[in-house]
Amino acid sequence: MKTKTRTTKGIAIVITALAVASVAHAQLKEPPVPGTYYSAKDFEWKPPLPFNPHPELPVVEIEPGKFLVDDTGVPDTPEQAEARRRHQEAAALARLIAANPLLAEAERAARQAAQEAAWKANKERITPWLVKPLPRAGDKPATRQTIEAETQSRLLSLAAYFNAEHQGVLEEAAKTGTR
User: Is 166:160 a contact under the CB 8 Å cutoff?
Assistant: First the structure.
């Protein structure tokens, strides 16, 4: 019985010591600092993050709450390398266009022509699925002008009808003296 008590007491002491040591060890690790984290490598086109994407890398606080992560040593993925190459090409083209107004006008005209061609191609591609208006009575084309003319004609005839009805009610009221 005594050995059982001693064994249980020894196990309880070991468990308590381990729990205290793990709590003390967990408290040594610093919690992440809240703020806005910018990438040193991709500062031009990568948005800031609300967390540190690379906690193992050095961080410099440039303003209170704004941090710069030194991720220049992190190798690029193939997608990032392609995006970086395209970004550099676009920046070089933009500098070239900005330096020459005639080239800028030619680039604008080319983009406008390309956009119009794309719109035309899209319209031709979806035209078969567009709903065509049903033909009107008498095989008149259903254009906006013809529909407005018919609507105006119907409204004028209704106005004439209601005016005649109103005049009839007024004459009847005058005859009976109820007006």
Answer: no
